[in-house]
Amino acid sequence: MNWLSDYFDIRRTDAIWTVLLLAMTLGLPLFISNNYYLNVLVLVFLYAGMASAWNILGGMAGQFSLGHTAFFGTGAYTSTLLYNYLGVSPWLGLIAGGIVSMFFAVIIAYPAFRMRGVFFAMATLAFGEAIRILLIYSRKFVDMPYGLSINWEPGFSRMIFEERSSYAFLTGGFLLIVTLVAYGLSRSYIGTYLRAIRDSEEAAVAAGVPMRRYKMIALLISAFFTSAGGTILAQYVLYIEPTSVFSINYSIDLPLMSLIGGIGTVAGPILGAVIALPLRDVLLELFGGAAAGMHLVIYGVLLMVIVIILPDGLIGGVKSLLRRLQRGQTSGNRTTDKRGRK
Amino acid sequence: MQLVLQLLMSGILLGGVYALAALGLNMIFGVAKIVNFAHGEFLMLGMYAGFWLMVLTGINPYWGSPLIAVVFFVLGMAFYWGIMRFTIYSTELTQVFTTLGLSIALQNLALVLFSADYRTIQTMPDGMSSLQFLGFHLSTDRVIAFFFAMAIFAGLILFLKRTFTGRAIEAVSQDLMAARLMGIDTQKIFLITFGLGISITGVAGAVLVPSFYAFPSVGTFFVLIAFVVVVLGGLGSVTGTVVGGIALGLIESYVGYFSPDLKEATHFILLILLLSIRPHGLLGVKGAEKETLK
Amino acid sequence: MLEVENLHAGYGDAEVLFGIDLKVEKGEAVAIVGSNGAGKTTLLRALSGIIAPTQGNVRLLGEDVAGMHTHALVEKGIVMVPEGRRLFPRMSVRRNLEIAAYSKRARPHIEQRLREVYELFPILQERSDQLGGTLSGGQQQMVAIARGLVATPQILMLDEVSLGLAPVMVSRVYDAIRAIRDTGVTLVLVEQNVSQALSVADRAYVVQQGKVVLSGTGKELKDNKEVRRVYLGLGPSEEEN
Q: What residues in chain C have their Cβ under 8 A from chain B's Cβ atoms?
């Protein structure tokens, strides 16, 4: 392990997380056979992977994008178009989609990276919506049906599977790869640069961090994997249309999950996905019957509460709880806020 | 030429409406430095308020606007005191997601309470719904909404410049700590600002419902327009919002004539362009986009 | 008039003041000196309500005021002129001055206060329509001090008024401070420029690392060997120029 620890800052608790993750992604699909739960598993793994990808840009580099649906939809559309019209295998289509997404990412990077915080969020939000509208508008010039269907012909090279558990392995593998990348980034010097940029851009630049380059790196990686997620979903659902794959919900869900779990951490987005998706379903079960949309009212309120009480997500909350327990009653329960006011 | 002028007039009227819709957002942002992503939902609630007022009591939103203004003022204060007060010193991410959470909750609350049906009301007796002015066709409702916008705008400017409370609001928006040192109770100012901002937004919605359909997710359409107006006109500048609104109205009027499908896209593209080239907008202060609550 | 006892304060987990004791009598000018980071500004912030003390007492004329909000303290007459001036950049000089009379305490006297500060700083009247953000450092400092006066203080606290100013401006500012002191206003001056501070102060406290390490009259401190060496850069019998 020695040469690895020269370049990567590996910690003991990482081993625990790794074991948990491997057990989850490799074990659960093996043992679960109920289709409903397998579906949950497929989606949880997929979202967890994409949330992790978002987190690389939004959590580690601190550039919180509300436009990631653009990459998701681009991935879905690129691979589906290539498959339906040119017979290209979705495995290659995935790569192609990733490249197209990275291309879009470069285009939006130049204007967007000049802004900070909320304005970056607004710009990316606008970007996500713009791509969707432009796609719909492009149908005036290119003859394409509104929704695209993929024929169900199982085959590994076609990325279409008979068993739902195979899809669970697919998205599980996706999650493992993204996590590996996120982990590697986070523990390497790149991660340090990204965190520096996140915490204070001015200080980072003054310290000689090539800010634009590293922001771009984070963006490109994030875009690529989100796009891959889009391809995978298209192959799972076998039908896409602009409002479904360019839905603003993806742009909101991915940051949301990272936030709930613990933004900026490697495990956070995964934890967030594991909690948020089933939570929504549970809420739907409990409240959906009463009136359409009731469960989302509760969801929205819960969201507000969680975000205010746990600004660093669950992982942050647990960490600060541990810290407070460690310190014990040394200086009393001081509840001063950032400004020192009670 | 006739066409150009007709588009000009409807563009200005539309712009006034857009400015009104964005004013509340700008106020809250200017003072508390928070972008309220639930802004569209408050507008939506205002629209429903105008609708239900008319349907249940027969009072049209123009006459009913004082009542709506008061109700929404209280709502705005409750919004601050119950929710935003806890995020004032939090990170931007927290603020964004708090307002996003509220947005989700409110949209779906409207869905539950009012159903997804599209609602609108007719305020003018038949035949009076459009005016003839120098040979141009103008929608009566839009003309009235435009005058409401101008009246509210004028009132707001007077309030901000001439009263001590108004100047205190300006002070808080320029330097929070210095304002506190002047003896200004900043909690009270935030309460008033949120109250005022949401009140204006509620009235804006009520006055819009005769010309636009009300439905639970109408907020998402308007909030983006409000963003564009605020950024175009200048963050934190009240006059800027009006200028920005009218400018957007004009742009949309002309673009919409030649290519109706691209109308929506223009909003987004305009926003991105503005944010990258001139984030402080036409009348805003340079660097306003980098300000946070100090 | 102002009693500070065992004051502790800080920012979140970082404590800066570790038990400050000091007194200010009515009509006095008290200087608080010390090097950078000693906690002087934190002290003023704790006294003016910008941050809340974690421990200790602050009494104004016997009344307990520790932990009160800034606006309440301004109503009681505790007014601070902050470090870095902090004028409202997009308000005119006149507006900057007028808003300082916001409190119920100050508002009835606004016209009189404005006349007084215009007399003290005639340049403010000349430039009364100029925007605060466009003034020079020295002019801003004058506006800032004037604002403090308009707020009708019982005790006026000045935080590092000489910071960033050219020496000639510093002299002028301190001339004004002397004039203010002569009208009977109680002053607390926090300064890194020790010689100027001691020249106008009746008494002074030296603060190091969050504690008071030395106190005495202006003259006593000027003769003190440590003070001379550390803060004035003088040997035991040198004279200041």
A: 48-50, 69-71, 74-75, 79-82, 86-91, 95, 98-100, 102-103, 105-107, 147, 151
